[in-house]
Amino acid sequence: MKPMKPMKPMKPMQPMKPIEPSERWWPANLGAQPSTSGGQKGTRYAFFGDEQRLAVDSGNGNVQVYDTGDHRISGVQQSGAGGKANVVFTSQHGEVDLTTLKPA
């Protein structure tokens, strides 16, 4: 019977790299961190609750900012047929069609 070779010690674990913050694509005056953000099908959004503002980039780099009033945006749904997209956001009051929000 052959003698067993001693096991090599484990290499020390490498420290985790810090998570990089996401690139800010919204206007700087809204702040560094949105309350919530996300995107779907080429449209991305960032909601700033304290400022009552919603920044939306429809995929063309042109960011539009909307006044959300008392809506607390928490999600987005997008559908479309015939090349026309319909974006609907979710708030504590239910669905909010983007066309019902006033540009800020």
**Numbering strands along the chain, what is their spatial order in the largest sheet?**
1-2-3-4-8
Rg, alpha carbons: 22 Å
What are the secondary-structure elements, in order, as H or E?
A: EEEEEEEE
Approximately how much helix is present in the residues?
under 10%
Number of H/I helices: 0
- The class by helix and strand makeup works out as mainly beta
Could you name the ranges where pLDDT drops below 50 across 5 or more consecutive residues? Answer: none
Question: Which strand-content bin applies to the residues?
Answer: 35-45%
Main beta sheet:
5 strands, antiparallel
What is the molecular shape? elongated
Number of strands: 8
In whole angstroms, how far apart are the ends?
Answer: 81 Å
Mean pLDDT: 84
Mind explaining what this structure looks like?
With 104 residues, this protein is an all-beta fold. It has a domain at 35-103. 0% of the residues lie in helices and 40% in strands. It has strands at 36-40, 43-48, 53-57, 63-67, 75-81, 84-91, 94-97, 102-103. The chain has a five-stranded antiparallel β-sheet with strand order 1-2-3-4-8, with no helix packed on it. Strands 5-6-7 form a three-stranded antiparallel β-sheet, with no helix packed on it. A hairpin with a 4-residue loop joins β2 (43-48) and β3. The protein is elongated and about 80 Å long. The termini are far apart. The model has no long low-confidence stretch (mean pLDDT 84).
